[in-house]
């Protein structure tokens, strides 16, 4: 029974344009129009952080010099479409519960 209550987040260490490293937790991923997108939040660092509001970060897979990296979405229309999708999925989970959401997949 205790195994069902255990949660191990999928963490990514991302490096920004200034070379700063920060841990992010993957909360959702999808493929849309042949592109792979990821919704992440900054990783929880302490109990106070868990109670704070945090920003949803949406990134996409791009290839740079043959290497797969995560990058921000520069196109406003693309960002609006993808962020709308993720926000709707998050809202559905909170309204319907995670079991209902998993049954849809």
Explain what this protein looks like in three dimensions:
- The protein is α+β, with helices and mostly antiparallel strands.
- Helix content is 34%, strand content 37%.
- The protein contains four helices and five strands.
- A five-stranded antiparallel β-sheet has the order 1-2-3-4-5, with helices on one face.
- Strand 1 and strand 2 form a beta hairpin.
- The longest helix has 21 residues, at 76-96.
- It is globular, with a radius of gyration of 15 Å.
- The relative contact order is 0.13.
- Mean pLDDT is 82; it is low at 100-105.
Question: Strand order within the widest sheet?
Answer: 1-2-3-4-5
Backbone structural class: alpha+beta
Mean pLDDT rating: 82
Characterize the largest beta sheet: strand count, sense, and whether it forms a barrel.
5 strands, antiparallel
Number of strands: 5
Quaternary status of these chains?
A: single chain
Which labels suit this protein?
4 helices, 5 strands, disordered C terminus
């Amino acid at each position: 029974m205790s195994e069902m209550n255990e949660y191990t987040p999928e963490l990514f260490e991302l490096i920004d344009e200034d070379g700063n490293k920060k841990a992010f937790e993957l909360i959702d991923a999808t493929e849309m129009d042949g592109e792979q997108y990821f919704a992440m939040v900054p990783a929880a660092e302490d109990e106070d952080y868990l109670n704070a509001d945090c920003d949803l970060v949406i990134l996409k897979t791009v290839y740079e010099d043959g290497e797969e990296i995560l990058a921000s979405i520069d196109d406003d229309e693309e960002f609006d479409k993808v962020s709308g999708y993720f926000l709707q999925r998050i809202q559905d989970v909170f309204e319907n519960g995670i079991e209902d959401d998993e049954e849809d997949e």
